[in-house]
Prior knowledge:
The structure holds two protein chains of two kinds. Chain A is an alpha+beta fold. Chain A has three domains: 2-188, no CATH class; 213-506, no CATH class; 586-662, no CATH class. Chain A has 23 helices and 20 strands. Chain A has a five-stranded antiparallel beta sheet, covered by helices on one side. In chain A, strands 9-3-16-19-20 form a five-stranded antiparallel beta sheet. Chain A has a three-stranded antiparallel beta sheet with strand order 1-5-4, with no helix packed on it. In chain A, strand 14, helix 13 and strand 15 (416-417) form a beta-alpha-beta unit. Chain A is elongated, with a radius of gyration of 37 Å. Chain B has helices spanning 5-9, 11-16, 38-57, 60-84, 196-199, 232-236, 267-283, 302-315; strands at residues 25-26, 32-36, 88-91, 97-98, 102-110, 117-123, 130-134, 139-147, 152-155, 159-163, 170-176, 181-185, 210-220, 242-247, 253-257, 287-292, 295-300. Chain B is built from eight helices and 17 strands. By secondary structure, chain B is α+β, with helices and mostly antiparallel strands. Chain B has three domains: 1-183, no CATH class; 186-202 and 252-321, no CATH class; 214-250, no CATH class. In chain B, strand 16 and strand 17 (295-300) form a beta hairpin. The chains are: A alpha+beta, B alpha+beta. At the A-B interface, helix 7, helix 8, helix 9, helix 19 and helix 20 of A face helix 3 and helix 4 of B.
Amino acid sequence: MIERLREGLGWRWRQVELPQLWLLAGLAMALLPHLGRLPWLLILPAAVLLGWRLGFELKLARLPPRLLRWLLVGLALAATWASYHTLIGRQAGVALLIIMLCLKLMEMDKPRDVAIVIGLSYFVVITVFLFDQSLRTGAYMLLVVTLLTTALTAFSRGPSAANQDANLRLALTLLVQAAPLAVLLFVLFPRIPGPLWHLPDDSSSAGTGLSDSMSPGNISRLSDNDAVAFRVRFEGELPPSQQLYWRGLALTVFDGRTWRNPNEAHRGRSPLRAADYTAIGEPVRYAVTLEPHQRRWLFALDTPATVPERSYLSADFELIAHDSVKTLRQYRLRSYPDYRLEATHPPRDFRYLRLPQDTAPRARILASQLRAESASDAVYVQRVLDFIRRQPFYYTRQPPLLTGDPVDEFLFDSRQGYCEHYASAFTVLMRAAGVPARVMTGYLGGEPNPLGDYFMVRQSDAHAWSEVWLRGRGWVRIDPTTVIPPQRVEDQADLERIAPGYAARLQDAPDWAKQMWRQMGYGWDRVNDAWNQWIIGYNQHTQSHFLAKLGLGEVDWRRMVRWLFLGLALVVAILALRLFRRHPLRGDAVSEAYARFCRKLAQRGLPRGAAEGAETYAERVSEARPELAPQVGHITALYLRLRYARSQPRNGLSHLQQAVRRFRA
Amino acid sequence: MPLTLRQRLSPARFLRGEGPEAGPVLLRQRRVFILPTRQGVLFAIILLLMLIGSINYNASLGYALTFLLAALSVVAMLHTYRNLLHLRIAIGPAEPVFCGETLRVPVTLENPEGRARYALSLHFPEQGRVLCELPADGWQRVELPLSAKHRGRHALPRITLATAFPLGLFRAWAYAEFDARVLVYPRPAAATLLPLDCIWQTDLSGDRGRGVDDFAGLRSYHPGDAPGHVHWKSAARGQGLHTKQFGGDRAEELWLDWAALPAGSGVEARLSLLTRWVLDADDAQHRYGLRLPGQTIPLGQGAEQRRRCLEALALYATESP
């Protein structure tokens, strides 16, 4: 198959040594997923070097001389430095590895070089997993590993080996035989919670999803993104859908246009203080599987009563992880939807009231006006919400561009906006009237997967709302977008979200194709969820959980290692028994008969010599005992034909055995 | 032959093999050794780095890949070992060569199993390698080079059969040492003018040599005699087949004599010169004999005489007869 492909490509391709081709194909495919992550300054040279090597294999180009190679190494280092200003860390390290590996192609002639290149190509595969561990990538990378392994077999068999399909088949056989061992290692190898050491964080790697600031247009850009942000499994009762506010980050600093999260130094840690926190009613228990978003915050329902490992609760009741979430992260939580938070004392911090001096003058006037008409802060909140409900505010994904003061222009002129506009304007109105307030970003709602027992929360569910502090009630969540009447919500999906049930009544049932597409989507997400649960999320915790479920009881790492070695020994022994089993063949019976013949002669003082061939032996015997010559000649000829001839005589074996039996020396 | 545990674990087996053996060698489990190659060590280092990376970044698929590759190398180890297992090695007699030439030892590799063997390499210590493959249930004969450095009859050094198939991460090898000998003739001296008067003892007294010129009588027929020389008349008379014999025109009988050589030259130089003369005399189809101290090879002619003389020269003053 492979040969025919090569033949079809023309005479130049016929000269290529196929092991090299396997390797180049595998390497190119391994590099492909990195395309989007690397700067062009490095992609281009890597592609050129790969092409150069291919050209060399096609006898179109010569490899660069040593001096030029060193120059290229220097240039590669410079390009990496120019792109990342460092040579270590995840991004820069991977870039450096790739460019150096491609340079190594320029001097790959000895078996050792080939081994280095293939070994590092396997390493490139693993670097892909540092960025993306989805099922799709995993399956693709398995293909790459197969190609690289085929290259190894092809190199080890030598370039003369004509049949490349056999190499591919052998690589597949090896991988299939390795699979049980690999599974055993995966399940039983004790997981060490990383990281072993901290590598510099890549500031350049922006994940999708929410960012740590919010300005107009920030969240609406996510509204078309169907990617799953996280999945949730509830234990027991589902909370009502109007409570599914997934809190992410509190934005407290406003510069007139953009809301920001105060940086680490200002945030401070907040130990859970019972005095400030009164839980009411039953908690919601759930487990979140968070897709890597390269940021440090975690998402939780109001209000988390527990803190997952390696994270803490900030003063604004955000869940902050110790490290940014670079790989799939799972955590379990207990939240109290009804609560009183810091209800008795107003927050001493002025940052919940601070507004830039000259922003939103018209909003300030409106605020003082409405506040003067209100008996309390709580009544004031209602007045502002009424204002939004009564005035012609629209909820739209394509709000007009705001050129002046964004808050004033939105509140009094355009009156079209997405959740960030409403949350921002509402919080400004609160602060202008002296009510402590902050903007919360996170996700709203989620979609249950009918094929699984979990919720999917997508990027398009990103949302922003406000929290205000009211005397006696503490921090209270206010979502100003919920008061917009449904007819003023432009998008069906948004309507579904902020006024559940309303959209379904309006819309006709989707036709069967849509339904099927939806079902397939659910199915695919279900598979991905299983992948996340069982493969990606397999960590120290799930490992001990799983092993306990298997009936191994409470397992510490010592027992795990013991089980692991036992299992490995067993699997290897089974495999070795299968592989080393002798294949009883016709050949053995032939040798056996001939050996009997030799023994008979040896008893008569004519043993077969050390390295004596059957024919020489026969001649010698015939000379010594001419009367035996015909029989000896017959047996020897039969033996040789059975042993070495391409075409086998019929009933040859039984003839030989018979002749040997009758033979009397 | 079963081994005791002590013998089985003895490092001598690992380094030197089993010692010379009589018959064909079958590679059973205990004869096949295996160790990682340099590439294998490199691969292990890369795997270790991969494991550290996976731990550091909590990358589950990283773990999976690392484990898959580790398992792959274990499986490859078994396959490498299996690639040699149950092979049968036999050798044939090697044609004698002159010192300085290369012996070609015929080695027959036999694969008694129903799966092919790939990338096998055979070599004598510090000698060139021969690569071969064996089809399922097939055999292959290769000629293994062995440079002949000294004249005499030598024990065949041990043969190393090795393979790194299928991934090159491990090298399995086995030693096969045969109880066989190879003969190396002395290096013939450069062609020199023969000091004829000194050593040629020409006997011109009779035409006793066989030739094609003069009819000299009849002898009984031997298979292979030219039909033109068969005496058909006697055959027609029912006297059986006879062949006409002819006398040579002039038979030169020469004695190649050790004692006649200049006394000053060393043993090897004399042997070299005598070897050269044996070859020259054989080429010229002379009848010749060889006189060495303590040994005389009578006059003779043809391939057998050449062999006898050269063997005597090869073995002169060596330990083994």
